[in-house]
Write a structure and sequence with these properties.
Elements lengths: L1 H15 L3 E2 L6 E2 L3 H8 L3 H41 L10 H15 L10 H27 L16 H18 L6 H5 L8 H31 L17 H37 L4 H4 L1 E4 L7 E4 H20 L3 H29 L6 H32 L10
Antiparallel strand pairs: 1-2, 3-4
Helix pairs in contact: 1-8, 1-12, 2-3, 3-4, 3-9, 3-11, 3-12, 4-11, 5-8, 5-9, 6-12, 6-13, 12-13
Length: 408
């Protein structure tokens, strides 16, 4: 995790430097990741970058839908366990919860510039701190209760799983960690919301250092204490895997915080994809009123709402598609690992490195060029291993899977 955090911070700093072309203070702005690739690399790489970025954004939406549904079910199940004193298995289907999350996202997706609401970052930070602190506290309490530290430095014991399964799970874990640091795919879009002076790149580098540092600290503490509490029996998610049953109300608060966080995060990650499709449609069909015309709807006590029919239809279809796929593939850990693997090398490492080399005109075969290429190749190998582990996990899940009938 420390390695991933260092690589993510370093390459994010390289990517932040590519927000402006030429002069870092007054140069031409690149409003999106694709714009940055177009300005620095050009050619076919722009289309490759766009495809990878937008497929990843779609995948993140699927992952967030699955995660939110699991947290909503965890609230229902913890209350059920409490009410039945643990006698009821409290099994339930995930589909209604995914549909409920999808309906909420359809509504929120119609709010213009949802990702730029000033209070959204504050709410996300508070929710993250809430569920991370609760997870950490419960882990510490469990260790204190049992009086011993479970697990080992080498991870899960062979016997609990086979040697092959341990290898595949280790690879999948790399993808899970990569997903935790996957914000690079919208870093340029976030940077575009910053005010200058100071220069956007300086502000972004400071924000990246702070966010990566805090994220790594909490992830390490929660992961280590969770493993110390449960050892080989550690659930994939401390707050939803029911390693903890009490206090049930505290688990409810933590899972509610996760849902609230993911409702906003879904929209933030999807905005670049929404904007790309809507901009492309407007450029290709400038005379279509269905695409370009806004219908003004007065709302008492608020400013006039501009309803765009294309935005309404397209965003609704998008959310429905992510919800449907989530219902078809509700394997959270494996899907997250696969998404992390697919996005880590190209978007977090390869394009930032190549754009930085192009922008700074670093000569081929120089020491700096060689170091950057070694970093890129090493991360590519890690990505391939993580993808293989996650695919193996998905294939294993599919052996006992029935579409639209997954219970937890």
């Amino acid at each position: 995790m420390f390695l991933f955090s260092f690589v993510t911070y370093y390459t994010s700093s390289l990517l932040a430097a590519c927000y402006r072309s030429g002069d870092p203070v007054n140069g031409k702005r690149n409003y999106t990741y694709m714009d940055a690739v177009r300005s620095n690399l050009g050619g076919f790489k722009v289309k490759i970058c766009g495809c990878i970025q937008y497929v990843n954004l779609f995948g993140v939406a699927v992952g967030y839908t699955i995660a939110s549904a699991i947290s909503m079910m965890a609230i229902k199940r913890s209350n059920c366990f409490h009410a039945s004193a643990g006698k009821n298995s409290c099994r339930m289907n995930s589909n209604p919860y995914m549909i409920a999350f999808g309906i909420a996202e359809i509504i929120f997706s119609q709010i213009p510039d949802f990702d730029q609401l000033w209070w959204l970052s504050i709410v996300a930070a508070v929710m993250s701190f809430t569920y991370s602190t609760i997870g950490l506290g419960l882990g510490i309490a469990k260790v204190a209760e049992t009086g011993k530290i479970r697990g080992s430095l080498t991870g899960i014991s062979v016997g609990t799983v086979t040697q092959t399964q341990k290898i595949w799970r280790s690879f999948q874990a790399l993808g899970d960690i990569a997903f935790a640091y996957s914000y690079s795919l919208i870093l340029i879009e976030i940077q575009d919301t910053l005010k200058a002076p100071p220069s956007e790149s300086k502000t972004m580098k400071k924000a990246t250092l702070l966010s990566v540092g805090v994220t790594t600290l909490f992830f390490m503490l929660c992961g280590c204490m969770g493993y110390a509490a449960f050892g080989d029996l550690s659930p994939g998610n401390l707050l939803t895997g029911f390693g903890f049953y009490n206090p049930f109300w505290l688990l409810d608060i933590a899972n509610a915080a996760i849902v609230i966080h993911l409702v906003g995060a879904y929209q933030v990650y999807c905005q670049p994809l929404f904007a790309f499709v809507e901009k492309t449609a407007a450029e290709k069909f400038p005379d279509s009123e269905f695409i370009t015309k806004d219908i003004k709807i007065p709302i008492p006590g608020f400013r006039t709402y501009n309803l765009n029919l294309f935005r309404l239809v397209w965003r609704t279809i998008f959310v429905m598609a992510t919800t449907l796929i989530s219902m078809l593939l509700p394997f959270f850990n494996d899907i997250v690992g696969l998404l992390g693997a697919l996005g880590f090398w190209p978007l977090t490492v390869y394009f930032p490195v190549e754009m930085y080399i192009s922008q700074k005109k670093i000569p081929k075969w120089s020491t700096r060029w060689l170091c950057l290429q070694i970093l890129s190749i090493a991360c590519l190998i890690i990505t391939i291993a993580a993808a293989a582990g996650s695919i193996a996990g998905v294939m294993l899940d599919l052996k006992s899977y029935k579409p639209f009938s997954t219970d937890y």
